[in-house]
Design brief:
Number of helices: 10
Number of strands: 7
Order of helices and strands: EHEHEHHEHEHEHHHEH
Largest sheet: 7 strands, parallel
Structural class: alpha/beta
Strand order of the largest sheet: 3-2-1-4-5-6-7
Radius of gyration: 18 Å
Distance between the termini: 21 Å
Helix content: 40-55%
Length: 262
């Protein structure tokens, strides 16, 4: 996809991966719509990048209604917003679980549902989902968070199957620990901190910068890459999990919806 003048919507865009992603798309000449719940930080980022700002809390389904219509004809949707829970399920409340699943999984699905019909009509567009290696491996304290990210990765694969032949692409980024306030939050939990430190010692996992994720994402959208695994030293695990999806994808090649959506 040519990104100059493309309209790109990024959720969770006020800090971390989301802000770095917005900056990377801006450097390619894209027009931006930034979505976040931290209104002061959101407007500061939007003013600096010349972007449209939409303040929204994705934990509230009502605030998702019509969000894509407010943004305009979006060419690239980046579902980045996410929150963490780093304690066992018996220490979580029903509201903890609902909020995490709403932000990490249901909101990306709903925004995709809103965005895709117009993309299909134009035969142009891309949906990029920021997932996690926590959706591939099971760490103590990550049962709920990992489930949401495994669901997001699988949703992306199913979306790719639905969009065959429409001209609309999809990308999922499965990233390990990213240096950010989010990483500071999750490693404040002793179980996560000890788990990461053990994995660091294997040499397979290492912290990466938000800019690394942003650059990889922009390249993936430009090239139409389906899956990106970061860091590359940890790519074997998600590649093995992805293998059955790719085999079934080959087996069902050519099967498409008789009437494209929209």
């Amino acid at each position: 996809m040519e990104l100059r003048d493309a309209l790109v919507l990024v959720t969770g865009a006020s800090r971390g991966i989301g802000l770095a992603t917005a900056e990377a798309f801006a450097a390619r000449g894209a027009r931006l719509v930034l979505v976040a719940r931290d209104t002061p930080a959101l407007h500061e980022a939007a003013e600096r990048l010349g972007a449209q700002a939409i303040a929204a809390d994705l934990a509230d389904p009502a605030q998702l209604d019509g969000l894509m219509a407010k943004a305009g004809e979006v060419d690239v949707l980046v579902n980045n917003a996410g929150i963490d829970i780093t304690k066992p399920i018996w220490e979580q409340t029903a509201e903890d679980v609902r909020r995490l699943m709403q932000i990490n999984l249901l909101a990306p699905m709903e925004l995709t549902r809103q965005a895709v019909p117009a993309m299909v009509r134009r035969r142009r567009g891309h949906v990029a989902n920021i997932s996690s290696l926590a959706g591939v491996v099971a760490l103590p304290g990550y049962s709920t968070y990992g489930t949401s990210k495994a669901g997001l990765t699988h949703f992306t694969a199913g979306l790719a199957a639905d969009l065959r032949g429409t001209g609309v692409g999809v990308t999922v980024i499965e990233a390990g620990p990213v240096r950010s306030a989010f990483l500071d939050s999750v490693t404040s939990a002793p179980t996560i901190d000890r788990s990461y430190n053990r994995l660091y010692k294997t040499g397979l996992l290492r912290p990466i910068d938000p800019e690394d994720v942003a650059k990889a994402l922009v390249r993936a959208v430009e090239k139409g890459t389906r899956s990106v695994w970061l860091p590359k030293t940890a790519a074997l695990a998600p590649a093995l999990v992805e293998l059955p999806r790719r085999v079934v994808g080959l087996a069902t090649a050519g099967i498409r919806h008789p009437t494209p959506p929209g």
